[in-house]
Fold these 2 entries.
Entry 1:
Amino acid sequence: MSQRRPQHGDQPRAPDVVELRVHGVSGADPTVILDQAQVRQVAGDGSGGFHRAARSDGGGPDGVTLEAYRWGDLPSGTVGRTLAMVFLLPFMLSNVAVWMRPTGHRRAGWVTVLCRLLALNLTVLYVVSIAGVALDLLAWRCLGAVPCRAPFDTMAGLDGRHVGQRLALLALLPIAAIGVLRLLGTRRSGPADNPLWAVEPLVHRLRAIHVAAALAVLNVVLLTARRAGGATFGSTLLLALSAAVLLACVGLLAVPGMIDRAATERTATWTARTVGVVAAGLSVATLVIVAGDRRAWLPAAGLPGYGGIAGVALFGQMVLLVLLSGVVLWHHGRVGGRSALPGGLGAAVLAAFAVGLTGALSAGLVYQTGELLGGYRGDGGPPLPYRWTLLAFFLHVVAAVLLCGAMSVVSLRRRRRAAAAITARDFPVVPPEAVGRLRLTTKTIAQARFTEWLGLLAATYAALAVVGLATSLVGSTGRDPEELTRQLFGLPAGAVQMGLSGGSYLLAALLVTLLAGGVFAYRTAWFRRHVGILWDLGTFWPRAAHPFAPPSYADRAVPELADRISQLTERHVGVLLCGHSHGSALLALAVLRLPPRVRQRVALLTYGSPLDRLYARLFPAYLNEEVLREVGERVQWRWLNLWRDTDPVGGWVFAAHRPGDPPPDPADPAGQVDRRLRDPPDLLPAPGERSAPPLRGHHPGECDSEFRAAVRELAERLRGRS
């Protein structure tokens, strides 16, 4: 093989192979990754850096040079950003849902459209709920119709102002909330202005559309209330223009590929920015007109028209969710011959989570704030749409707990039977003293196989969206929940009130849990290892639906890895990429970015990898079998994947190779990638040992003999190309 002629400044290649290790989610210390007492950073920064052993050669076992990439601080970085998880979690879920859409069919584009419209609805509902507190509860009720508890009944002298001035001034709270959302969803690279943080043009367009829609909805709330007491030409014109802006935002997202296609990129960017500027100008004009209009306002217990707007927003998200479920069910979710979630429900399942959580948070915010301030005394409580939403949340949680418990019990027998078959093949002869150890191994494998039931469990949860849809339909009729349940089921009003209070308390408990998780994740390593998994996985996917979702740390990690790999191949004979768990996904994406001359000197070793077991099956729009085969082809199938039956996360990529399985097709190089590791290697202690080999499960095991054998094999294949 001809080598590239050294250019100016090039150094001759060292005759060794670099073993570059990338850890999984929830972070890891470089000393642990490298199994070295002292390490030094050789590239990167404090959030994501490359480390080697403190000694100058950085040498490791098997004649390789060890290096580790630590990216664990990229997803979060600060306690404040982690606490933002409470507010950004629904947006993050709606963003992840896009990548769970089925592929290879023309209807997949409509799934993206519906996911983006649902994401826009989440932003709208967020603004509507903040407006419910600022405008309906504070400006209208506490300072006018129904005085709140002291000291909220005066609000720094606002009680003496005209109602229009109160509304205009307190409308600044929702506007500030929009600004906070935009700030939380913006990744700043810091003083070094790291160029590796990619900024997607799509996110800029989506951000302009969402900000415009949020401002337009706020204008509609104010102008609807103003026109209820008498319309004027100015208020009518502004209301019509604000509605037109909202429709324009929907239209930009509703046309498949409108904001994605390169041919329309410049037009879409200009249109999105123009809509945003127009919405901002209309907001200024609306505040001026509302504040300066001295005419009498319609006397009412609540802000006129607010309940109807909240009801339309809540009902709209349920309609979009049903449409999304229908589209993905129509396309049976077959991806590259592999089954995703039943019926391709992945996108609908995550969307259902996002919708339910957003509705509950919105209703809880309005409900709890009203109870705290005493603003709902004597007028029947908060707006009806929020009362129905809280009731639906309570019923949803109760039904979900019962169904999930039933699913766990039903699946237990099958999981135990499958685990017993695996251990029977691995250990055909079991001494009496090893029976207990065999029982523990079987139990561990049965627990690990619950991952295979996640699809059915998620589909069951998605079916519970019927509860939310039913309550939204009933709530849109304007019927009071206490009255309706008494007429239909003969239940006392106290039963419904118990459901409302239960939903409120459940939501408060959820918020406290999330907030506590954000705090303790940075104070307790054990807590972060478990809570951080959800955050690290959720913030991995590029933002293709909601621009206020947390930025994807892959925007930096993947280019940074690709750049470092390119540098190392110029200095060493080859680079062996070793990715554990989620680290294998980062490396797979990095391989796809490498130029041909670099890929010739790269090999890949994955272990505990969820590339197929979770990602290719749950996120076929991002990682699927076609993409995985392309990764193998780009490294010329210098790829080994180690997996264990006791691992609840990782698994095989192309073939399981369990005892008794048919042999792989010798003509297909993908069949040689996977290597199953029996776990434990034996049920009894080895000669000279006091204890039996431990169950490894999802443990990395870089020092295990099987891992080192795989490293030696791939390193020799790299050296053979030099």
Entry 2:
Amino acid sequence: MKTFFTLCFLLMPTSWIWAQTSISGKVTDTKKEALAGASVYLKGTYDGATTDGDGNFKLITDEKDTATLVVSFIGYENSEQKLQLGKPITLTIVLAESKNATLNEVVITAGVFEASDEKRTTILKPLDIVTTAGAGADIFRALQSLPGTSQVGEQEGLFVRGGSGTETKAVIDGLIVQNPFFSSVPNVAQRGRFSPFQFKGTAFSTGGYSAQYGQALSSVLVLNSNDLPEKSQINGGINFASVYGGYTQRWEKTSLDFNGSYFNVGPILFNLNSQNIEWHKAPQGYSFASNFRKQTSATGMLKVYANLAGNTLGLTAPDETTDSGKSTFGLKNQNFYSNVSYTEAFDKGKLYIGFSQSFNKDDLKLDTADASRGDSRTQGRIMFTRDFTNDVAVSVGTELHTYEYKNQFDEYKTSFRDVYWANFLETDVHITHKLVGRAGIRNEYSQVIHRWNVAPRLSLAYKTSDYSQISLAYGQFYQNPNQLYLYINKKLDFEKAEHFILNYQRIRNDRTFRVEAYYKSYSQLVREFMDEPFDANAYRFPYGRTDNSGGGYAQGFDVFFRDRKTFKNSEYWISYSYLDTKRLFANYLAKVMPSFASTHNFSVLYKRYFSKINLQANASYTYSSGRPYYNPNEQEFMSAHTPAYHNLSMSFNYLTSIGGNFTVIYAEVSNVLGTQNVFGYRYSADGKNRIPTSPPTYRSVFLGVNITIDKLKKSKS
């Protein structure tokens, strides 16, 4: 829970900043036609605006000396110009139509939609994430407001289109993250480890993704880290749960930063927010991180990132298998992650080299038993991309991973080591001006199971008008069995999924509409065969016979609409997903909808900027239909359903200045109505006693302050 509250901060809307210099003007095309919805911002800052229906814009900034104004719009070349700040500035900016404004380069504020994985990918900027009410500045929680996801509050993971949490992989700068979440705790969905402000954008693929990625049956979350910061600065803050601080030093072509935090959730939050969990040790911990950036040439960049963290907690959890109905759980976690990447562009080509290491160890106390679990991963990746003609580009790459898992319960120890090797080749072709295709193939080898696979990927997109397009995608995806199964059976095969996707999107006047239908076929899923009754505990250790005879399907459609045009200083988006899925896997007794899936998921987000009072207000509402759960008193397996999930959350960010330094005071109320959501039920062996699985708290209130000190500002004489 390290980042539990470390970055609900920096919540800076793009329509106001402490008054110093006023910048206004108009944006048009070469025919002098106004461009409505163009993005206007100062490079390296959060100061920006969007043009109105007449192409006009206005922003106010407290930046000093000089700044670079950037103007961008879909289908047009970006405009950048250096400004001398201090006095009011009025500009007329003319954008030229992009020479490469082809289908696979369509870009919108909410995301990028291309002729393959990115075609169905939604990119969220850091501010989109931290201003999503109820998400608590957590990347994974914010993504649950997008179509294709399910609301699962009792275990960590991103559950996409009927897939389990382990079927989604997080990737940072091209490299898989071994432990993107904090360590598992019974009936508590853990947060992601990384701050959204570490990344330029967050790309979420709901399926049919590129051959560049593997080991994910459902989806990938691609995170690309920041380049050089704009300037040196000091940042710090305090809230109900943590204190944190950071220092960034920027030289001409190099930067170095250090960040540290300490959190203790108990002292204030436990008293302020009623708990459904009996804690005997409040979650607390620390983290230290550092980033190094070096611009090695005009087109080259070296990035080095390292993070060390630790945390402890203890709780008493409901347990229907014990006489007391309870069991104790204690956790002490240590985690280290490092990532190094180098990119260099050449004439018509680009080289990427990446390397990462990670280490994670959990010392557990389960009642009177001592247990531990740990893992480590080392990986390297090389990729080269080249444009052979204006219409054909080819990417080729290879990656190698070595990882190890260990598990212990008292005297019982298990472990295994794997070497995973993958190669991929992908070609992008502009078949005509309106038709774009991508074909790729990926092959993988896993030493622990001594298996190879070959996975083809194919996608096409056709431009139906100046503002819309339709696309098709097909792909095969493989994933190693869960490590718990590999402890006991190393003769298993890869699990497999096939994706079929049809997508339509329309982007115009700063409005985005997308609808997507899909069918996903599962095969070779691992099944367990046990002599004892079904055990619904998601944290159990399997011990029966296993094979790859499982399978299933997921089908449905997603709808997404985002509007930044209709209401002044406001934006909203609406998501809806319909899911029909069944699978036979794990220790399930029949092919049924799994307990982590729900048929209907709906969410609405609204954000409003009140520039006169320097306040941003955000609200979100999420609905999810009931999820299946196992009731031993029912004749039909997994036929019972939980009540529907409802959550209305709000957050507020007040912008001010303390000592001339930009300051944000932020507050959030999650589940304002205090709806008593239930994620499932557990039964005693005789089926007479039932224990609900509830969130840690029904309603939570949070408050904090963040201050940014620009160390380059000149002191007043």
